[in-house]
Each structure stands twice: as C-alpha cells, then as structure tokens.
Amino acid sequence: MKSSALDKAYRNERDACVKERLLLIIRISSDKQQIESVARELHRSRAWAYKWYKRYNDEGLDGLRDRPRIGRPSFVDEDIIIKIRQELSDSNIGWDTKQVMDLIQKRTGVKYHEEHIRRLLYQWGFSPKVPQKRFVKTASKKDKNGFKKG
After folding, report:
1. Is residue 72 in some structural domain?
2. Domain count of the chain?
3. pTM of the entire predicted model
4. Is residue 110 part of a domain?
5. Phi-psi region for residue 24, left (φ > 0), alpha (ψ -120 to 50) or beta?
6. Do 22 and 10 form a contact (C-beta atoms < 8 A)?
C-alpha cells in the first residue's frame, strides 16, 4: 500500500490501538527504519512490532484490527438468559442478587456464584437496589430506625 493511502488511513482511524499499529507500518515503509528502532520509539517490544508488521503484510489494513476473542462458552443458552433478563426488567420490584441467583438456578439448573450474578446484572444494565454506605449518614434517626429489623 502506498504511503499516502497509509497516511489517509491513519488520519481517518478512530481506534487508538489500530492507529499506533498504522504508525508502526508508516514509519517502517516510508522512513525505511528498522523494525527494532521503530518499536523502541513507540515504547513497544520487538515481538509486538514483528507481530503487527507480519499481520499487515499477510492481511493488509484489516490485519491491524483486533480479532474477536472467544472465551469459555456459557453454561446457559442465550435464549434463556434473554427471557430471564426480560422478566427482571418487566418486574416492578427490585431484585436481590440472591433472588436472581435462585431464579437462574430454578430455570436452568446452573448455579452461578453471587459475584458473577452481580457482574451479569451490571452487564445487563441493572443497578443495585441497596443504598451505598455514603447515603446512610444522610438519613434522619427516625428513618434509620424504620429500616431496622425486628
């Protein structure tokens, strides 16, 4: 690819990581610098520079983009998770993490850890229903006594 096309791609790129990789390619191709010296200028390792230079040579500009990462597959089907998520959002009451954990276990037979349920709820856009510690001191004594059990 010509230097002007690389410069244009660099100017139009929004992803900072891809932009840094493009800068590596531009410096190597236009300035005829060694990969090691360009890596040093960018405060990166030689292995990083060689990896992205090879990906660029093999795949072109698309090779400089991050590939999707595949993690461990979920134990629960996506359709069931969508139904549970919809049920939680349609409900007018607040949900406790233990209640959500029991609901998921009842529907799927899979028991997630409480901390994972919190992560899921956050990922789904739900916020905790329990007030944070900083709000405790703002309530009056009468309000605090109203919340006490037994």
Report:
1. no
2. 2
3. 0.52
4. yes
5. alpha
6. yes
Q: Show contacts of 60-66: CB within 8 Å, 24+ apart.
A: 60/1, 61/1, 61/9, 61/22, 64/18, 64/21, 64/22, 64/25, 65/15, 65/18, 66/17, 66/18
Q: What is the pLDDT of residue 150?
A: 57
pLDDT score at 115: 92
- pLDDT at residue 35 greater than cutoff 60: yes
Structural domain span for residue 38: 3-64
59 & 11 share domain: yes
Convert the pLDDT of each residue in 124-138 to its tens digit: 888 766 655 665 566
What is the distance between the alpha carbons of residues 102 and 128, in angstroms, rounded to a whole number? 17
